[in-house]
Amino acid sequence: MPLAYALELELDPGQRGYRGQVVIDVRVARPVGAIWLHADELDLERAALHQGGAVIEVSGHDRHPGAEGLVRLALAGPAAAGRARLVIDFRGRYQDRVGVFRRFEGGVPYVYTDFEPIDARRAFPCFDEPRFKTPWAVSLVVPEGARGLSNMPARVREPLSDGRTRIRFAPTRPLPSYLVAFAAGPFELIELNGTSVPMRLVVPRGKAAWAATAAATAPPLLTAIEAYMGAPSPFPKLDLVAVPDFGGAMENPGLITVAAHILLADPARPAIPQQRFMALVCAHEFAHLWFGDLVTPGDWRDLWLNEGLATWLADKALLAWRPERRPELDQVVAYREAMALDRALDARAVRQPVYGRAALGAIFDAITYKKGGALIAMLEAWVGEDAFRRALRAYVAEHADEVVTAADLMAAVQAVSERPVAATLSSFLDQPGYPLVSAETRCSPGAHAGEDEGASVHASVTLSQRRYLPLVERARAGAASPDPTWKVPVCVRYDRGGDSAEACTVLDQPSATLTLDTATCPRWLVPNAGGRGYYQYRMPADQLVALARAPLDGREATELAHTVRALLDSGDLEVAEALQVAGALAVRSERHVHEPLIELFSDMARYLVTGAQRERFRAYLRRLYRDHMRTLGVSPRPGESEEDTLRRLALLGFVGEIARIPEVVRELRASADTWLRTGSGIAPGLIEETLRVVAATGDAALFDRLERELRDSGRDVTRQAVLIAAVGSFTEPALIERALDLVRDTDLELPLRYRLLLALLRRPRSVPLVLDYLRAHEAAIADSDASRMLLLAPLLGAGLCSQRGFEQARGLAQALSRRGAIAPERLSPLLSQSELNMRTCLAFRERHGGLDADFFR
Question: How far is the C-alpha of 437 from the C-alpha of 841, rounded, in Å?
Fold first, then answer.
């Protein structure tokens, strides 16, 4: 097993590859004639084992046929049990997106790394498994004019005779191979203030001005996490590196890499959503300094420990830093995104054995990150916030620099709680899906909800559980399929004579009764107090309507808004009942409540409302949303909150296209006309949405005008992007065909034509025509640089609600996969999710088609 590494690499971003030497101190458990380690796509030039003053040459090497990157080093003589030093000289090539890779910014090359989960073996020979944590001493040799960076501060800089510089970095704390990181290139460095350890932003040359928002965001988030953990960052410096054309972020201690489009913001076009996403990503990566870096799961099956804890702690930091942004409501939305995957009959468990690159790639999903975070939040709420903080601090103190399993976290939490932590958490980790908890309030004879409130009654809530499945999945499972049982921490909040009270239990049987401490029959009851349990609830329709009118907190109201659609999809709620609940919730101001309601109302308008009902339905929606728009206005108001700005953005398309509030549509059309004539008249963050709404209700004359503007826009890429989005938003079939004609028009630059395809794929009415086009041009699209971008849109963004449409999208995706656009193992879960969404949509149409006209009277 490895004990320590010394790694030296000669990195020249201007070359196609690099060379290096790795020295690994090892302990040989027993006499051997060969050593197995990982080295993938590397040229091993020379290797030898040094032991007891002797040098044992490596006489040859071969690859294991059944394991990725596993190499056998045959020794020229036997190695004895005990300590030894393995020295390997090697060459490597810069990869495309993983391992050691290059990126160009302004024509200038830079070198970066990304090793999680098993790509360190593509960078240097190593024992590439997370259970091996050792110190690393890294040295880089870089050309003149380039900076070299790694996890630790530079300790020695040594000029070489050829103009290059050798940089020796301080040894790391014990790290697994996937957390080693380095970078090279002519970076600009921005020093940040107000942090417990030195912090810098590392950006490509010429991008320093784009780092201003990150410079203001990162330090307070690190401080917030340190305050929660009760300790400063466990690593002596922290660089945040902006990586062009990168997929996300990576928590390398001391050298966190973040996609440039996330970390850097155009100072001329500030955007609230991008600022918030940047903060979320930074907080998540900072949380990893403790969970993942300092304390590391020793097996990939426990990846959720890294990602779940980081997801949860990031929300904590955001709430401490900017509570007015309502991150606790974003948390509910994130957990619902996990439930969208977890509702599938063949969903995977959070914790399961993982073997091979394909299986490893599949676990970096919402089940690991967002379900993992939801389970941590549920656990915290169950044992108590203060007790849980003590448990986490003890867990980190006990296991710093070590590898852990889920059992270690459970033991730490169990030490501060008398509740059955391990059994409860394991029931959610080791089986897929989540429970549907039925809750029905009952009162003793003689008093009913809202009657005879002075009478003393016995009140209780009857609970039961089964697996939540949409109707289509339950039909697939069959009546004979047994329902699993969870140990569900259920906490309810209920009306107690005008105040509220809570009661909690562990629902570990198919059914149970929970007594409520009240002398009157509760007028309402929240089956998931604070929205912190990872379960779906249902209740009788009259009690659900009463709940929608109750004094709910923001989390509970957001949870209820999502519950309406979930119960429609599972067949536990009828449309008229759903409209009553949604209508009662629509008076609230929270954006997070309105977003699922808007999605529900929009789907009803597309799939359920026909003929004469259409105008009645619009009138109903206008009654719900006219006052919201009067309060917000179509244009931003001086000094308004970020949440009001985002709420307007969320509502604008809905009230303009679906509800079609006349005064809103008129104002949007006037604003669009002014902008097209003068380039002003619309707030920067609303230009694209305004033009989309106007186009969606527009005619051929507007199409002509937008097309002329597009062709006359010259090299103004920002204006082109807005105009393309608008051209792709028309809903009349003839105008959709004209938009597709533009896609075929070679006078337009190829990137613009692809952006137009993406815009069309966002519109359910244009999806069938676009899929026909994509199928006809499959080969050209698959061979283009845009294929990755186009692949996800038909599957995840196209609103497929027909078997034919799904089959077309699946055929296109598979063809793209065969041409290398996406690995088959990454495509498979996307296809499964897309198919479930399609079948659920079809079931929604078939079960609920034709709204009850009496409701609108």
Answer: 23
Q: What is the pLDDT of residues 523-569, one digit of tens each?
A: 999 999 999 999 999 999 999 999 999 999 999 999 999 999 999 99
Phi, psi of 128 (to 5 degrees): -90, 65
- The residue-averaged pLDDT of 802-820 equals 83
Angle subtended by helix axes 385-399 and 372-383, to nearest 10: 120
Q: How far apart are CA 88 and CA 104, in angstroms?
A: 30
Q: Which amino acid is at 737?
A: E
Task: Show the CA angle centred on residue 387, arms to residues 385 and 388, nearest 5°.
Answer: 65
Tokens of 89: 């000289």
pTM assigned to the model:
0.94
Longest CA–CA separation in the chain, Å: 96
List of residues 6+ apart from 857 with CB closer than 8 A: none
pLDDT of residue 159: 96
Burial 756-789 (b: 16+ CB within 10 A, else e): bbbbbbbbbbbbbbbbebbeeeeeebbebebbee
Q: C-alpha angle 163/169/175, rounded to 5°?
A: 140
Determine the Cα–Cα distance for residues 406 and 389; give it in Å rounded to an integer: 17
Look up residue 387 and give its amino acid.
Answer: A
Other C-beta atoms lying within 10 Å of the C-beta of residue 100: 26
Strand partners, 4: 25
Phi, psi of 250 (to 5 degrees): -145, 135
Structure tokens at 582: 């949604």
Write a three-state SS string for 628-674.
Answer: HHHHHCCCCCCCCCHHHHHHHHHHHHHHHHHCCCHHHHHHHHHHHHH
Closest CA to 301 of 248, 348, 343, 251: 348
Q: Which of 439, 413, 415 is nearest to 426 (CA)?
A: 413
Question: Which amino acid, residue 13?
Answer: P
What single string gives the DSSP state of each residue in 232-266? --SSS-EEEEEETT--SEE--TTEEEEEHHHH---
> Exposed, middle or buried: residue 678 (CB in 10 Å: 0-12, 13-18, 19+)?
exposed
User: CB within 8 A of 431, min separation 6: which ones?
Assistant: 349, 484, 486
CA 164 to chain centre: 41
Residue 448 has pLDDT above 50, yes or no: no
